[in-house]
Amino acid sequence: MEIVPLTSSHGNTLVAPFQKSFSEACPSLIHMPVDVFIEICSHLPHYDLLNLMCVCRRFYYWLNSTTSYTTQDIWRTSRLKFDKYMKLDPPEGMDEISFIRLSMIEKKCQICKSDHDIPKIYWAFRVRLCIKCFKKRVTIAPDKIPEWAKDPIDITLVLPHEYLSISRNVTKCVYWTSELTSTLQECLFIPTEELGDWIFNKQITAKNKIEDATKRIKNDQIRLDWLLKEKKDLLDKTVKTLENIKDIKGKKIYLKNYIISQPTYQKALSTLKTPFMDTDPWPNLYKKLKNDLAIKRHRKLIIRRILQLLTSYRKLSDSKGEIFLNDPVLDCLEWCPTFIKPPEKLKDVDDVVLRIRDEAREYLKKRLHKRRGPFSTIEGCNKLLKTCNKTHVPLFKCKLCWGSGRKSYSYAGVNRHLMCQSAHNLYYSDIDDSMIEIDREKVRKLISTWLNNKVLLKTS
Ligand SMILES: [Zn+2]
Ligand SMILES: [Zn+2]
């Protein structure tokens, strides 16, 4: 057994500066008897073992031995126990760790580590590559095989090959380019009388590799499908868990449609076609999603309360007071930090509304933003109409008319009314905004549409 005695310390190694705090933090880990270590390992999936290797030099040493039976055993046990699609034994001459590492398609292309393409394991060459990296490193037979590779013998006769599909109907044999050169070099050093045996042995090895490769292709596909399904299940489970959160009355808080419309969810969904998930593919997805949803829900509650206050008049004024059209809480709402990121636990919406109101006033005082409103003015209303793309909504009344039957007009409409011969018959130059007043009822209604549609969307 190659594993070092457990009493040896790290000595003057690179980890020495961390050793003190490490051993203080977990003395039992550093002085762990080897059989305990092996026992622990037997309960870990291979990706945890890979992580464990990075913990310290000793673990690395124990787990990285390609010759120790114990080490090989640890990896084999883990592979057979935790990965139902890694049941085939390693190919001839390959140790367990290299085999597991190569089999893990979820670990991306060995060369470029690209996130976009799913790599393929080319067992005859013992590499896992994306198609781009593969194409760069192979030579296509027969036309691309260089002349030098055919002298003194045709080297391709003793090498394993893989296949590359050139177009829809054309698949060609390919050889690993660096293997062409290295095998030729090897061949040049073989004495002539031994060449026959050498060729024979090489051909057997190549044949075995090719046969072994065909045996594994199907398994790789099954494993890939399984990984993709696991990933999808994980996402579905996250949604289910969120869906099952209920309020005190037992009512669902987050509806499915609401959850899957979140950008965080959509982003996760867009990566479903790649299997990369040896660890968590979307760290903290649940927490992020829940947080997004909670914020949105809180914003809704705040807006609802503001709308209540806006339309309450005097009825509710003794409790927390109504909101007037010129209150900056309305037109500065989307800039207020408390509204953008409402408190995680919302005990009293009224308090939050008060806080937002203060923030809005503070903003105005410091002139941090140019105010679009207030909505009690014609200018504010015109801007509100523009934001809602509803320039023809009648929000204005003529001040010169009086009586109960006064009509509401659009801004252009009220101007026309003032100029109309049968009404006030004013010259265009005589008209000014002091003759126009706003229809508060209608402005309130438009504000509620604006808050519900625009502001809520804009701050999501
Ligand atoms: Zn690649
Ligand atoms: Zn009038």
From TrEMBL:
InterPro entries: F-box-like_dom_sf (IPR036047), F-box_dom (IPR001810). It comes from the Eukaryota. Residues 26-78 form the F-box domain. Coiled coil: none annotated. SUPFAM superfamilies: F-box domain. This is F-box domain-containing protein.
